[in-house]
Task: structure prediction
Amino acid sequence: MRRDAPELRIIDDAVWMTAHRRLEEARASYLWMARSRDNGSGRKFGYLCGYHPRGRTVCVNGLEAPMESTDDAVLASIERDLLRPDVVERETPRLEREIRSRLAD
Result:
């Protein structure tokens, strides 16, 4: 049984609603989210679609990628494809212009 007891609240409704709205906005801004679970042999960390916990009507992708191997694959791809000297040399001036433009705004 539940009973509403506003006299026991430590924050008012407006603060509560604002905080929960901000939490929802933060959750919605990430395509992938990390989660941990205990599979009996200790904590396992993985990535899954940030929308999947909202239910199958929102996302049917139940794939969960192991965090360590996924991180390794992403970092290897960045190193292989983006941190090559020719890419860095070609893109650095463009990135500098973009950063200066954003700082000026």
The chain has one domain: 6-104. The first strand starts at residue 32 and ends at 38. The two ends are 55 Å apart (CA to CA). The CA atoms of residues 31 and 50 lie 5 Å apart.
